[in-house]
Amino acid sequence: MTSLRGRLARLLTPKIEAAGLEIGTSALKVVELRPGNPPSLSALAMRPMPPGLIQDDEIVDAEGLAEEIKVLFDEAKISKRFAVTAVSNRQAITRNINVPKMTLQELDEAIKWEAERYIPFPIDEVVLDYFVLDNPDDVEDGEQLEVVIAAARLDLITQQIDYLKLAGLEPVVVDIKPFALLRSLTMSLSSEHLGKTTLSGTGIDNEIGVVLEIAASNTTITLVRGDRVLMNRNIGVSGDDFTAAIQRSFGLDFDSAEEVKIDYGTATIPTEDEEELLNFDAKREQFSPSRVYEALRPILVDLTTEIRRSLEFFRVQAGEANINRMVIAGGGAKLRGLAEAIGDALGFRVELSDPWLTVTADTNRFDTEYLKKVAPEFAVPLGLALRGVTGID
Ligand code: ATP
Ligand code: MG
Predict the structure, then answer these.
(1) CATH of domain 191-352
(2) Model confidence band, residue 6 (pLDDT cutoffs 50, 70, 90)
(3) Mean pLDDT (whole number) for 4-12
(4) 258 Cβ below 6 A of ligand 1
(5) Mean pLDDT, to the nearest integer, of 187-202?
(6) DSSP of 256-315, one letter per residue?
(7) Per CATH, the architecture of 92-153 is what?
(8) What percent of the chain has pLDDT over 70?
(9) Of 100, 98, 135, which is closest to residue 118 (Cα–Cα)?
């Protein structure tokens, strides 16, 4: 969809390298990479989102946010001014659609009309992007092409661009968070990494992988086969819901409840050992791991029920589906024992993802323990940074 002039301009100018910036509801995060195969980490930083800048996923204080972004880039010592950023899955629509076989040039003209009926906004008020999954040369005449469409409201994209400009940045791509996530989790999802042998032709390549991101206010589930996105949906239970449950049970403010969740929270019934190990502060005895677990349990049940529903929904649509591996990301995935609890509920193995597998990091410059600790919440900004060095189209 890039204009011919745009394409020519890109050929004549050096390739842009951009940092990946995620404006999350609980934190701002930036990652900068140096191009290479694989790319290498050159900088990262994270700052909690100050209260009052974002409400319900919408930015309410543009100047305050711009200031925070500037400080974030300074902290990370990033001098690049180009940035790849993203809107959340709730602010965008992605779908796989089938269109009659046509040439890519014809599709470029027709996609707007083909996509229109799947988008609940007037087509002229959205930014539409698409990716063709089939090679038209491999598709018989009369058959259909599968295309992923992504649409976001033009006003939200324009807003996002304005905030970045206010912070002195030049936005080059506005992506969608689940797509960024997939880019940084390809290694975590690969069969080889999960200890299985990948032998083409044995059917293992046909397996469906699931990526679940549990962030502060958004949870998304994405089903993929190879590099093909099969389904992408929002789930109505996210990290902050766990905090809110602790708030209600113990009558705490949000920040104190957040602390209790991180210190004592578990997703599985605490064992006696855990009970002792986590009960490190006698003054806070009321927050015994088992009491905190009781507060979290209804939310855990909601989460696993919703995941199961999404998988059922997919199975009904797709017929036979061999789903047996899942990786989880997002800060909410760090709740103790969560991968295990979801795995038990679904009956297959679930693992915490490691987005850093897609890049190299100089251990003299970056603390390995720190990277490991923040891996789940850096999956999205890392995916954005990957787009910033491996091709902007
Ligand atoms: P969003 O993408 O939804 O706008 P975000 O990018 O700011 O939000 P993340 O940084 O991925 O969100 O995750 C923040 C969430 O992770 C919060 O709900 C926080 O409570 C939760 N979280 C962080 N650390 C832990 C932990 N150790 N245990 C449990 N939950 C945690
Ligand atoms: Mg996020």
Answers:
(1) 3.30.420.40
(2) low
(3) 54
(4) yes
(5) 54
(6) HHHHHHHHH-BSSPPPHHHHHHH---GGGGGG-HHHHHHHHHHHHHHHHHHHHHHHHHHH
(7) 2-Layer Sandwich (3.30)
(8) 90
(9) 98
Establish whether residue 241 lines the binding site of ligand 1, counting it when its CB lies within 6 angstroms of any ligand atom.
no
- State which ligand 1 atom lies nearest to the alpha carbon of 22: 6
Q: pLDDT at residue 354 above 70?
A: yes
For tokens 């930036």, the residue is 30
Which of 63-72, 102-111, 178-187, 273-282 is least confident? Answer: 273-282
Task: For ligand 1, pick from 22, 26, 57 the residue to mutate: most ligand atoms within 8 Å of CB.
Answer: 26
Tell me whether strands 92-100 and 144-153 are parallel, antiparallel or unpaired: antiparallel
**What is the amino acid identity at position 2?**
T
Share of the chain above pLDDT 90, in %: 63
Domains of the chain by residue range: 92-153, 191-352
Q: Is the pLDDT score of 83 beyond 80?
A: yes
pTM over cut 0.85: yes
Dihedral of the CA atoms 271, 276, 280, 281 (nearest 10)?
A: 100
Could you count the other beta carbons within 10 Å of the beta carbon of residue 1? Answer: 11
- Inform me whether the pLDDT recorded for 191 exceeds 60: no
Could you tell which of 238, 334, 336, 373 is best to mutate to test the pocket of ligand 1, judged by most ligand atoms within 8 Å of the CB? 334
Neighbours of 299 (CB within 10 A): 20
Cβ(177)–Cβ(89) under 8 Å?
A: yes
Binding site membership of 23 for ligand 1 (Cβ less than 6 Å): no
